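2024-03-11 09:14:02 DEBUG pipeline.ingest accepted 1 chain
2024-03-11 09:14:02 DEBUG pipeline.ingest length=236
2024-03-11 09:14:03 DEBUG pipeline.predict start
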Amino acid sequence: MGQKANPKVMRLGITRTWNSKWFAVGRDYAKNIEQDTKVRKFLTKELREAGVDRVEIERNRNKIIINILTAKPGLVIGRGGAGAEVMKKKIHVKFLKNYKLSEINLNITEVDRAALSAQILVQSMAAEIEKRMPFRRVMKQAIGRVERAGALGVKVMIKGRLNGAEIAREEKLSSGKIPLQTLRADIDYARCAAHTTYGSIGLKAWIYRGEIFAKDKEAGKGEIVGVKREERRTKK
């Protein structure tokens, strides 16, 4: 099960929470899901150079809050906040016409430990593959960056017509441990595609950042008390 399911989805309600926080019934639910999906895809594509980790969306009765967590918030905000205002207007015109411009709040936040973000990792790998860098070098450099940032384990996978070969194949490279079936394990997962002249090349990344101990026996049932992460042992 741990090998087939999305590691993030598998841990929802246990160690992770949802990126969309709102309540709706009937047709409103389907409409909100569609809007959220389109907004996320648009922002991830438009702000690719800024390294978007995730987009969190919250809705109230007459208000929508979009939180963008990125590695380079300065590129998104722009000089004097001009970039953020332009992005807000684009989102309003394309996807959120049912809201007034004043009802849309766009918050840009710098992500903690950007080097341990799987989404940022696969985006940077895709950019390098599109620049025709050798895929093995890209994979090794990516794993090296994650290890130096303090990850306990990392695995990257690449699929497609590698180096322009006529037959598509799959290559994997891993370091450390990736306990996919341990639900308290903090595993970040992301996938992306690099578009080359030979076709699309798929990229996947798993990053093991430690363990989360969410339930404390001394506290009430299901109450999340604190987060304790495993420290990486380094050889002296």
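2024-03-11 09:14:41 DEBUG pipeline.report The first helix runs from residue 7 to 10.
2024-03-11 09:14:41 DEBUG pipeline.predict end
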